[in-house]
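Friendly challenge for the regulars: who can give me the C-alpha cells for this chain first? No prize, just bragging rights.
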Amino acid sequence: MRFDGHVALITGGGRGIGRATALRLAREGAAIAVVDRDAEPAQAVAREVGGLALVADIAADDAGPRLVAEAERALGPLDLLVNNAAHATKSSLVATEPADWDSELAVTLRAAWLMARAVLPGMAARGRGAIVNVASVNGIMAFGNPAYSAAKAGLLSLTRSIAVEYGPHGVRCNAVSPGSIRTEHPSWQERLAHDPTIFEKLARWYPVGRVGTPEDIAACIAFLAADEAAFVNGANLVADGGLTTGMGLFMDELRGGAN
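First reply, four minutes later:
Bragging rights claimed.
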C-alpha cells in the first residue's frame, strides 16, 4: 500500500497505459482522478477504482486549473500527477499538415505543461509531490510519427526543467519512455487493420522477444511516483525491452545469421 492516503490525477486515464496506471495505483491505496476527453471510458475506469471521472480537452488553457480544483475538492490535495495523454496521427513528415503538428503538440506536450503548471503551486506549498510524464522512445530515436516524436522529446526537456526548478520545493518530476505498447489506441488499431501480425513482426526487434503491455509501464510509473524513488529526480526510465540498447537484427546480419 505504497500510496495509501495519496491522491493521483491521471490524464488519458480511460484507456491503455492510463487505465493500467489507475488500476495499479488504486490497488496500492491511492485515490484516483481519471481524466479523459471521452466520458464513457473515464467513467468506466473511475467505477473500477472507486475514483472520480473528469472529462476535458486538456489542451484548453483553462483545463488544468479546473481539473485540479475539481479533483482536490472531491478527493483532497494532489500528491501525484501522471501526464499520460497523447495524440498521434500522421506517420511521416510529408503527410503531416500544420494542423496535425499543432494538435499533436497541443495534447502531448502543451497539455502536460498546463497540467504541471496547475498542480505545482499546491505541491510546492505542501513541500511534497511527484509528477511522472509518459514520454516515448520516439523522443530518443526516429520511429516515425514526427510531430508526436517532437512532442515527446519536448516532454523529456520539460521533465528536466520541472525537476530542477521544483526539486528544492520537495517536488520530483521524472519520465518513463515506453517502446511499442499494445493498446487500443486508434493508431495501433489502424495498423492492425492493415496487418493483423504487426505486433508479432515488431517483437523481432525487441531483445525480450515481445512488445510491451500497459501493465509494464504502469509498474514503472508506480515506482517513479513512490517514496522509494525519493532520490530519483529528472530521470528518464526507458522501458522498451531493450529496443534502444542495440539492434539484434543488425548484429544477426553482421554474423550472417550465425550464433
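The two ends are 45 Å apart (CA to CA). The longest helix spans residues 98-126. Your move, everyone else.
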